[in-house]
Amino acid sequence: MSKLFTSYDLSGTLLANRVVMAPMTRTRTPGNIPTDLTALYYAQRASAGLIITEGLPISDEGRGYLYTPGLYTDEQTQAWRKVTDAVHAKGGKIFAQLWHVGRMSHVSLQPGNAAPVSSSEVAAKNTAVYAWLEPGKEGPVTPSVPRALATDEVRRITQDFVASARRAIDAGFDGVELMAANAFLFDQFLSSAINQRSDKYGGSIANRQRFLLETVDALSVAIGGEKVGVRLSPFGRLYDLQPFEEESETWTSVALALNERELAYVHLNYQPTISAAEVPTGFGARFRQAYRGTIIGAGGFDRELAEAELEKGDLDLIAFGTSYIANPDLVERMQNDWPLAEADRTTFYGVIGAKGYTDYPVFDVDEDAALSQSAKRVA
């Protein structure tokens, strides 16, 4: 059997296989509360060894996109319980991705129309968030200029993550993933091109990674390190994230620091993609040397590449993103060499209802056989 389809012990949580459903924002929840369709969407994909939810804002301040379901109110917590119950009923495991976008937001989404927060007052350029163009009219807008968090405010945001993590456990999630990737708040502290602080959270690599590590430690105390994962995107270039001095050294330092903690996993989105820089040769192997725990790899994987990477040993689990949109039975399709369906990209975001969300069928073996026989008769 392919290693991709073997079980895996994730810090005490037994996964049926090494396939992970990657977190994908779908902007499908008016009111920012998961719905019955949300529960169906994730339950349809429960044959994945592990599901990681779309990013869940930990507060109104942490939101950068309309219609993203949060995890900071009682109503949201109760609604997510329906989702986790549905996934568990199908035998699946599910982690909640906890999210604060930092500067990747707009005043129309912020409480009191305040400026978004970040490490410094450096705005994101040549990119967009999904917010209000004007009252009642939504669309892509340039992120607003952020304000720099005061030193004592950083701890407040850590506590917002802790409160959300506790809600996640109350809602039945098997664990949480800290979104520290893709140019959102933690990346804005790690990057010396964005972080211009002169306090204990700026300047040196140790200072720039302090916020991330303090939050990881606080989550581990609150819910147990075995239930905490961290997502990173080394050398990522999304959302105006630019190269910065000591970039390679920063990621090595983060890996070594996380290795000192007993976590569920580190989730690396480091494959070169349309919006990512070329990753230095041998980076994956060097990260593995520094971080000896479970590593999930994400970014442009198909079955063949996933199996090859697992055999190399630098990765333990493989995350699949876009292919899960049109293939709720992705594990079964890959395992049986069934063809993959193509997703309708026009329905990736912002569509309310089932279209392009929960209306993709599983593979029909009988229908495929009938079509094959018909083709043979025509030939």
State the shape.
globular
Terminal residue distance: 35 Å
Strand order of the largest sheet: 3-4-5-10-11-12-13-14
Rg, please? Answer: 20 Å
Structural class: alpha/beta
Please outline the major beta sheet: 8 strands, parallel, barrel
Q: Into which percentage range does the β-strand content fall?
A: 15-25%
Task: Please estimate the helix content.
Answer: 25-40%
Oligomeric state of the chains present here: single chain
Helix-strand blueprint:
Blueprint lengths: L7 E3 L2 E3 L3 E3 L14 H9 L5 E8 L16 H16 L4 E6 L17 E2 L10 E6 L2 E5 L5 E2 L2 H20 L4 E5 L5 H6 L14 H4 L1 H14 L4 E5 L14 H13 L5 E5 L13 H8 L4 E4 L4 H10 L4 E4 L2 H4 L3 H6 L29 H14 L1
Helix pairs in contact: 1-2, 3-6, 7-8
What does this structure look like?
There is one protein chain. With about 375 residues, this protein is of the alpha/beta class. Helix content is about 35%, strand content about 15%. The protein contains 12 helices and 14 strands. The strands form 4 sheets. An 8-stranded parallel β-barrel has the order 3-4-5-10-11-12-13-14. Strand 4 (about 50-55), helix 2 and strand 5 (about 95-100) form a beta-alpha-beta unit. Helix 1 runs parallel beside helix 2 (about 75-90), helix 3 (about 150-170) packs parallel to helix 6 (about 210-225) and helix 7 runs parallel beside helix 8 (about 285-290).
